[in-house]
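Project outcomes to date are best conveyed with an example. Our students and postdoctoral researchers have been running inverse folding experiments weekly, and each run begins with a structure described purely in C-alpha cells. The record below, which covers 109 residues, was selected by the lab manager from last quarter's runs and is presented without edits.
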C-alpha cells in the first residue's frame, strides 16, 4: 500500500515537473508591460563655417560646414560637443533630445 502511494506521488511529480519548471514567476513584470523609449527623429545641421564634431549617444558625428544629417535617437539622449568648437567647450552638452523635437531641424553654430 505504501509503495502504491509513493509510486503515485512520484508519477504526479514527474508529470507536473515540466509545467512547473516553465511557469512564469509571479512577482516579475511581464515583458509586454515594459515601457519602450520613444525614438525621436531629428535633423542635425552645422550652421557654422567650421567643421563640428558631436557625440549623440554612442555615435560620433562629424558635420562639415552647412552639412546636415538625419538621426533617430531615443528621447533623453544628449548631444555633446567634441573638442573646443566655437561657443562650445569639450564635453559640453549642447542640447538634450526630447519628444518635442520630433521632426525638428536642430542647428549647431
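After processing, the design step wrote out the following sequence:
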Amino acid at each position: 500500500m505504501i509503495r502504491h502511494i509513493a509510486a503515485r506521488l512520484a508519477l504526479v511529480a514527474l508529470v507536473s515537473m515540466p509545467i512547473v519548471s516553465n511557469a512564469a514567476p509571479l512577482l516579475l513584470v511581464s515583458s509586454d508591460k515594459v515601457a519602450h523609449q520613444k525614438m525621436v527623429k531629428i535633423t542635425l545641421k552645422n550652421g557654422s563655417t567650421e567643421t563640428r564634431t558631436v557625440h549623440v549617444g554612442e555615435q560620433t558625428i562629424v558635420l562639415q560646414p552647412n552639412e546636415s544629417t538625419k538621426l533617430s535617437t531615443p528621447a533623453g539622449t544628449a548631444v555633446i560637443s567634441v573638442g573646443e568648437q566655437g561657443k562650445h567647450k569639450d564635453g559640453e552638452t549642447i542640447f538634450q533630445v526630447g519628444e518635442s523635437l520630433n521632426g525638428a531641424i536642430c542647428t549647431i553654430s
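Residues 27 and 33 are 13 Å apart (CA to CA). The mean pLDDT is 83. The training component of this project remains on track.
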